[in-house]
Amino acid sequence: MTKPAKINIGIPEDKREKIADGLSRLLADSYTLYLMTHNFHWNVTGPMFNTLHAMFMTQYTEQWTALDQIAERIRALGFPAPGTYKEFVKLASIVEVEGQPKAMEMVRHLVTAQEATARTARELFPLVEDANDQPTADLLTQRLDVHEKTAWMLRSLLED
Ligand SMILES: [Fe+2]
């Protein structure tokens, strides 16, 4: 059988590996945030039900698409993408919420988780710039834009 050709895209293997590790942490946070948002879509109650139920759906639908983009960037860099709950729990910086929080507590948890995901993406930037890895930089920029904007929208719900 012919061996597949080695990856030669102009980024050395050690740098590709470090970027893939960072993207794996971003994937874990993004998945944890996705599940939290979908969970809250199912379980939200109270006078804000309609608004929050619909808002959470918009958010988790966008996040679901992003998971695929992050995982496939890891693959294009030559490394396996994590894809089990066990790995995600180990890699994520977001702590899962237990029980059934009240509606505004859900919003507070989501602000925290959105911001944590933004920090994980941002931490990776110096490495990506140093490696001249534009596709990953582009992906991180898109994720930062979404998470920071969503955190602002959620935070606005908590104000008078
Ligand atoms: Fe639904």
Set out the fold topology.
Layout: H1 13-43, H2 49-76, H3 85-91, H4 103-123, H5 125-130, H6 134-157
Helix pairs in contact: 1-2, 1-3, 1-4, 2-6, 4-6
The structure holds fe (ii) ion.
Describe the structure.
With 160 residues, the chain is mainly α. The chain is 73% helix and 0% strand. The structure holds fe (ii) ion. The site of fe (ii) ion has 2 residues, from loops.
Task: Name a few traits of the molecule.
160 residues; elongated
Short description, anyone?
This protein is mainly α and 160 residues long. It has six helices and no strands. Fe (ii) ion (FE2) binds at residues 41, 57.
Helix content: over 70%
What is the percentage of strand-forming residues?
Answer: under 5%
For the termini, the CA-CA separation is 67 Å
Bound ions, cofactors and other small molecules, one mention each: fe (ii) ion
Rg over CA atoms, rounded to whole Å, is 17 Å
H/I helix tally:
6
